[in-house]
Structure formats: structure tokens, C-alpha cells
């Protein structure tokens, strides 16, 4: 089986990638498999800077073609927060605490003003392979309470009107078909031959 290396330590993301790459005949390999002790500090101020940083750091260390994902949630009523800082919005990398903080900051904001979008930048790079990036989005509404147990991160409070479901109520395949990550991967496939 062909392998694709993803510069991530997020098991939820890895699952999202498996659902999309599996049918293309790829086994997904993450940093847990190839560089468990490596920590890449995300010092960029944009998704693109951080995606490139993660992809290039791991690619140089392994001398292999690598894809990285830097993503996050942008909430209009919070001026685009948590944005690039989505993973550590409440301090630690704690999904439950991050959701609590969002819900608290949106208290009293009516439904029509709870619009938001997920964004995902994918960077691909390798030895003798110029770095390229794509950006995918997915529009939604932030609910007042959690719904569903699938997915990761902010999925339980991110409602997608076209589906009538939160991302945590979708199957992994349903999420992949409409998500920022799925949309970014479609753009990547258009650019290069995966
Ligand atoms: O950097 P890696 O190791 O890939 O893992 P990470 O979780 O730190 O990833 P990011 O730095 O890209 O931060 C993205 C955060 O944005 C949120 N997020 C991104 N995609 C999401 C999705 O599909 N569903 C829910 N939350 C998501 C979630 O809180 C993530 O931790
Ligand atoms: Mg990260």
C-alpha cells in the first residue's frame, strides 16, 4: 500500500485524513509513527505559515514527501477568534475547555449572528518538490450547546445548515465530503496528482 506522511499529532485530524486517503489507496502515517518525540513550535501568525513550517520541518527530518494541516475556527461575532490559536484558545490543548470558552464568549449573541467558518491550509513539500499550499473552508453556525460525539475539537458546536447536523453528528465520511479539510484536499488533488 502507498503511504502518505502527515505532519500532525492530532488523532482526530489523522482520522479525517484516513477517511479521505483510504479510498485512494493510501495508508496514513503520522508523527506518532515516524517522529513521536519531535515537537514543532507553531510560531507563524497565519494558517499558511504554520502549515509550511510543519511540513518543511518534518520533510527535512525524514527526507520524504510530507503534507501538513494547519486549521482553525473563525467566529464572526468574535472578530475571527480563535483563528490561528484554535488549538490552545483556553490555554492548554483541551477541546472541552476550548468549547466552554467559545460558548461563554458568545453568551447572549443571537442565532443569526453566530456565523462562523472552519479554515484548513494544507502544505505539501518534499525533497526536490517545491512547497505548495491550498486553503479550504466550511461555513456554519455556533450552537449554544454541544450535539454529537464524533469528530474532535469544535465539531460538537459547529452546525452545518445544509446538512441539519453538527460536524460531531456526521459520520467521518459525511464530514469529509463537506469539511474544510475535505475541501482543501479536493483543491490539492486538482493541483497535484495524488
Ligand atoms: O498541529 P497538529 O499536530 O496537526 O494538531 P493541532 O490540533 O495542534 O492542529 P492545529 O495546530 O492546526 O490547530 C487546529 C485546531 O483547530 C480546531 N480544528 C481544526 N479542524 C477542526 C475540525 O475539523 N473539527 C473541529 N475542530 C477543528 C481544533 O481545535 C484544532 O486543535
Ligand atoms: Mg498544532
Automatic annotation (TrEMBL):
Gene3D superfamilies: 3.90.950.10. InterPro entries: dITP/XTP_pyrophosphatase, ITPase-like_fam, RdgB/HAM1. Substrate binds at residues 8-13, 71, 152-155, 175, 180-181. It comes from Kurthia gibsonii. It is an enzyme of class 3 (hydrolase). Homodimer. Its cofactor is Mg(2+). The keyword Metal-binding applies. GO terms for molecular function: ITP diphosphatase activity. This is dITP/XTP pyrophosphatase.
Amino acid at each position: 500500500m502507498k503511504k502518505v506522511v502527515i505532519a500532525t499529532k492530532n488523532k482526530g485530524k489523522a482520522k479525517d485524513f484516513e477517511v479521505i486517503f483510504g479510498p485512494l489507496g493510501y495508508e496514513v502515517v503520522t508523527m506518532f509513527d515516524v517522529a513521536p518525540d519531535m515537537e514543532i513550535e507553531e510560531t507563524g501568525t497565519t494558517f499558511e505559515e504554520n502549515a509550511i513550517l510543519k511540513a518543511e520541518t518534518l520533510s527535512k527530518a525524514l527526507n520524504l514527501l510530507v503534507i501538513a494541516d494547519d486549521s482553525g475556527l473563525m467566529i464572526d461575532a468574535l472578530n475571527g477568534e480563535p483563528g490561528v490559536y484554535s488549538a490552545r484558545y483556553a490555554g492548554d490543548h483541551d477541546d472541552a475547555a476550548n468549547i466552554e470558552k467559545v460558548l461563554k464568549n458568545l453568551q447572549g449573541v443571537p442565532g443569526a449572528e453566530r456565523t462562523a467558518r472552519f479554515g484548513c491550509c494544507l502544505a505539501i513539500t518534499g525533497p526536490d518538490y517545491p512547497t505548495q499550499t491550498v486553503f479550504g473552508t466550511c461555513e456554519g453556525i455556533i450552537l449554544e450547546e454541544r450535539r454529537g460525539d464524533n469528530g474532535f475539537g469544535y465539531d460538537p458546536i459547529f452546525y452545518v445548515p445544509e446538512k441539519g447536523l453538527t460536524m460531531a453528528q456526521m459520520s467521518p465520511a459525511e464530514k469529509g465530503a463537506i469539511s474544510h479539510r475535505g475541501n482543501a484536499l479536493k483543491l490539492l488533488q486538482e493541483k497535484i496528482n495524488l
